[in-house]
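Onboarding guide, step 5: your first structure request.
Type a short instruction followed by the sequence, for example:

Predict the 3D structure of this protein.
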Amino acid sequence: YGDAQGRTIDEQVKNYLDAIAAGYRMFDTAFIYHSERALGIAIKESKIPREEFFIVSKMWDPAMRRGEVDMLRQFEESLKRLQTDYIDCYLLHWPVIGKIVDAWKTCEKFYYTGHVRSLGLSNVKRHHFVEIMRNCDVLPHVQEDEFSPWCMSNDVRRFDEFYGIRYISMMPLCRLKYESEDSVLNVIGKKYGKSMYQVVLRWNLQHGVCPLPTSHNSKRMRENLDFFDFELTKEEMDRIDALNFEGPVNWDPDLFDF
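The system replies with structure tokens like these:
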């Protein structure tokens, strides 16, 4: 389940509690989302053991630019807000030019001490992985980036598959509101009695990608988990794949300026 940023702390806590009640156990947050504190509160209030959750968070760019001391400080702040002594997966949020190797080596220390269970990257290209692989000890375990019928990120995703790096799909449903009633996704959905949102989530799963849907609506949260009782045919998978034009909606990882 994606972050609940942009809402008050009470709204965020309720949003997370609704998601937990619906059955979500993996949560994606970040320092810059300002939602870590709410997630920590919600997990505590749920009374469900911490080890049943999988928490993903991210190191924000300014700390990477300032160096290891600031990274350590930011990481400790994240642990306190999340009310935990470890994070299941910790990502470099963006590949800060000239800092990615040093930042990764600092994160390796979090990994070696057990405060992080796995490490990853987001908003990256293949050459960012190569830079880390040439200069660091721990191979990235995870990449979180775009994966949708219109942006399959095939170049880097195939690289990930070769090296056993798990791909997490952010914004898997972001363009669906523009789809018409007679679109490929809606036609396939009607065949199975499913929405196009459920079709796309199923398509993610059958590609071996872990999707991260986001919603503030408890009914939609439950619907977004209801895609395990049908399977798309190869022809349907191919029809959805054919929509791809590698058109990202995010910033270019080589050109961002924040």
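Each response can be followed by summary notes, for example: The longest strand covers residues 54-59.
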